[in-house]
Amino acid sequence: MATDYIVGIDLGTTNSLVAYMQGDSPVVIPGEDGLNLVPSVVALDEKNQIIVGNAARRYLIETPERAVYSVKRLMGRGVEDIQDELKLFPFQLAEDLHEGEVLRIKIGERTYTPPEISALVLRQLKRNAERFFGASVTQAVVTVPAYFNDAQRQATKDAGRIAGLNVLRLVNEPTAASLAYGLDKKKHGIVVVYDLGGGTFDISILKLHDGIFEVIATNGDTHLGGDDIDNLLIALALDDIRGDLGLDVRRSGEAVQRIRKAVIEAKIALSSQPSATLDVDLPGGKKYQREISLEVFEQMIQRIVDRTVGPCKQALKDAGLKPEQIDEVVLVGGSTRIPKVRRLVQDLFRRAPHTDLNPDEVVALGAAVQANILGGGSEITKEMLLLDVTPLSLGIEVAGGVTDKIILRNSTVPASATQYYTTQVDGQTNVAIHVLQGERELARDCRSLARFDLKGVPPMPAGMPRIEVKFLIDANGILRVSAREQRSGKEAEIDVQPSYGLTDEQVENMLLESFDYAEEDFRQRQVIEARREADTILTALAKGKKNQAWQELTSDERRNVETLEKALVAVKDGDDYHAIRGGIDALNEATMRLAELMMDTAVSNALKGKAMDDTDLEEGLQAGHPVAKAEFE
Ligand code: ADP
Ligand code: MG
Which CATH class is domain 6-224+307-387? Predict the structure, then answer.
């Protein structure tokens, strides 16, 4: 049995949680351990069973190579843009990653993409909700930081799908927090959301008009939060232990783990008490104790807390606002429970922040409010929801059977995009346009939506025509594809309905496949493209040998070219990418002078308007070669 409940989920860097609407108020759903927060930690135990949440935390210490945390930092990002994270976090990437490939992280002997790891956290939350309701839960609203770009948002949606959750909507975290406080009911105003979590600080300024939130400025620090406070206290304790007890336990994972636990407890106690005691039983029987007063604690964290000031001021400046113009301030993130942080926020924005709801739960609560709005919405709003983004990428087939994406999945509609292509074959007068939907690299693995021919292109050498292919999706999700050869003005177009007939299940399978096959696809694509390039250069060379320029080369040059030609022919139909690539490069270099000599003839022929020879024309008249990627843009 499935419930009608749409749950709200805060998929956090440090902690995640799930909430739902109980009557008129949102409520967090606890896990089996009775705790509301599920640490965003995933581990593999000795038997390769997946462990998520609190239970996974001890693996971080005992077998760190079998656990990951903070994976939200990697969502929707490439190897190139996570170098900063790699310096600060012990992420272990899969060894065989290629440029442009989906990132994979090693846990034990296995590798997972960031969306797959997030999916494991989501699946745990889904299970918690299902246990709570005694029924299956399949729909969710999930929150993301306001600054998340399209790729990061899409990765979050993918995580939902992989977890078996239909993500009806992604909501910005600051918007969710504002919804939890019911600020949308005020209709108009400026809301500041100050979010200090475990490892990140985000400041967002929202403008509320007619009950709709618009993010007008964001700023923050992706490496600032409660973890920094913990590390300060740990350093203090390690110093003490060395000084007072004469023990150096910095390298003892077990000792550091116990100290970490103790300092977090002390830190939390200090949010509601004037002092707290650090109390650690060290391995080997010794005991470390130290009392920390609120005063000392506040001095210690001063510099950390002050680091939030700059981003706040910058966000105000970017929004063109003065503190007096702020109507509401909302606190988010566990670290805003610290009284000193609250005072700082109050001073900065000159008004008392909202503190009634738990700051580490408020985002999930707001997601539940949003879920409830969607669930209760009319058929029309539901329909609009489904149509508001393209579920899969749209593109066309290009030479070699490769998919060229023109509109990327998750683009908001209406959308339009244009790409330029050319012909593969000399004298080609008909050009096949094959419209595809899907994420896979090869056309045959994508869904074929439509085919049409652009006919009557005047014969020109391959690569000469300039074919503009335009994709336009209107607000109803109808796709119009048009192709126009710009030199001749010939055009053709077709209407297709991309989402028609494609079930969610199919979309999901296609997405899953694209993850499963990403690597294999990449290799195949490389080989296909290299083969095609080899064909192009060999054909060009065959032509070149008939050219007078060939005779102008020295006999040594000719012999060298022919040896390399034979070598390339020998490897080009094989599967060894590097061999083909090497063959192409060598032949390219050897034929450089031939190309230069031929260029002179070609230019003079073109100037004379010399027609192409008949064999070329015949070849081109066979209809329907797909387009080739154009060098020009
Ligand atoms: P995130 O949004 O990064 O997933 P949270 O909002 O759950 O994280 O915040 C987690 C951080 O809040 C941790 O560093 C935790 O130690 C800290 N925290 C939780 N409760 C308190 C408290 N009472 N006092 C101080 N810090 C707290
Ligand atoms: Mg958070």
Answer: alpha beta
